[in-house]
């Protein structure tokens, strides 16, 4: 039986010959069918802190480890850092001065775990993973999530740092909820990875929009909004205004566009354009909104697109670890 590649080459020769006969085309002159070009392992994550998170994830991926372990380990580094004021320990509180965390995780087998509005625990991503692996459910919120975390041995502690507390006290003077694009919004670390065995996984974790209403949940813990992985197609994660990502089920849209044949880049662009159209239809001001997507497919090709300038992401593959800036819609 002839291989699919030989078949594709033969049909390409046949169609070229038909289109521009006589034409002497040799099989060796045709471009390789790029489905054979696989770039793995590879890991992508949002914003500047993605660089150090990628380094951490690479300690797993570089040794042939599982993408799921890599993404959990990578984002935990950022959750544990009190100087990162938008994720985990040290995250900015809600308007009542309470730090409430959102996170989710998804593996190569459609296993999912998610936690929302979780207080007093530094590593919501690991609570999400425990929900995925140890309960019959996929999502726990608030007190129930905290009870579960404590039952699993997670330490209950104060995660409001003096810096975040004094910022909140300053904010109370005006008490205006006005997220500033690309400033207060450097919130979420979303990470997606393809491991050496060809499996995809993703993780997403945040303290959400600073000074949000108590109980507000964004896109980051919602599978299909802040994160989606289909091991036959690709993975995507989002950052920015969660309300807009939920409205469009953003990362599910990105993955479904890849399933239809779009490159990761084109899929992110079309999903952002959808948000742009919907925002216009709703007569809302696009200038006040930022959403950025990053996406990765099974071949290790990646892409990104956002609404406005200012978003960046980190990518680590055989070429090393680097920051990249995506193209954007509002010019
Ligand atoms: C949220 N998507 O809670 C998060 C925030 C974020 O960049 O990613 N901001 O809506």
From TrEMBL:
Keywords: Signal. The keyword Nucleotidyltransferase does not apply. InterPro entries: Ntn_hydrolases_N (IPR029055), Peptidase_T2 (IPR000246), TAT_signal (IPR006311), TAT_signal_bac_arc (IPR019546). Gene3D superfamilies: (Glycosyl)asparaginase. The keyword Protein biosynthesis does not apply. Residues 1-27 form the signal peptide. NCBIfam families: TAT_signal_seq. This is N4-(Beta-N-acetylglucosaminyl)-L-asparaginase. It comes from Chryseobacterium profundimaris.
């Amino acid at each position: 039986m002839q291989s699919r590649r030989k078949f594709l080459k033969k049909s390409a020769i046949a169609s070229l010959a038909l289109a521009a006969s006589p034409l002497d085309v040799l099989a060796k002159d045709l471009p390789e069918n790029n489905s054979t070009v696989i770039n793995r392992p590879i890991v992508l994550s949002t914003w500047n802190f993605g660089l150090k998170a990628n380094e951490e994830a690479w300690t797993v991926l570089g040794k042939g480890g599982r993408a799921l372990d890599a993404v959990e380990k990578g984002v935990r580094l950022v959750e544990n850092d009190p100087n990162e004021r938008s994720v985990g320990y040290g995250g900015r509180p809600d308007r009542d001065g309470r730090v409430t965390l959102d996170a989710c995780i998804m593996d190569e087998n459609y296993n999912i775990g998610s936690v929302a509005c979780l207080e007093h625990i530094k590593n919501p991503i690991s609570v999400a993973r425990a929900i995925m692996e140890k309960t019959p459910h996929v999502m726990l919120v608030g007190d129930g999530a905290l009870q579960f975390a404590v039952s699993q041995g997670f330490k209950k502690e104060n995660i409001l740092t003096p810096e975040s507390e004094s910022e909140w006290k300053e904010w109370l003077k005006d008490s205006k909820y006005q997220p500033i694009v690309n400033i207060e919004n450097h919130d979420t670390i979303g990470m997606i990875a393809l491991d050496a065995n060809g499996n995809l996984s993703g993780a997403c974790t945040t303290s959400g929009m600073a000074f949000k209403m108590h109980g507000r949940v964004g896109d980051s813990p919602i599978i299909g909004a802040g994160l989606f992985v289909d091991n036959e197609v690709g993975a995507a994660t989002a950052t920015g205004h969660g309300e807009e990502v939920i409205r469009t089920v953003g990362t599910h849209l990105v993955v479904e566009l890849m399933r239809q044949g779009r490159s990761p880049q084109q899929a992110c662009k079309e999903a952002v354009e959808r948000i742009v159209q919907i925002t216009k239809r709703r007569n809302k001001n696009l200038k006040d909104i930022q959403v950025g997507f990053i996406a990765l497919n099974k071949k290790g090709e990646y892409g990104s697109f956002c609404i406005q300038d200012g978003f960046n992401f980190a990518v680590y593959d055989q070429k090393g670890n680097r920051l990249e800036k995506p193209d954007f819609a509002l010019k």
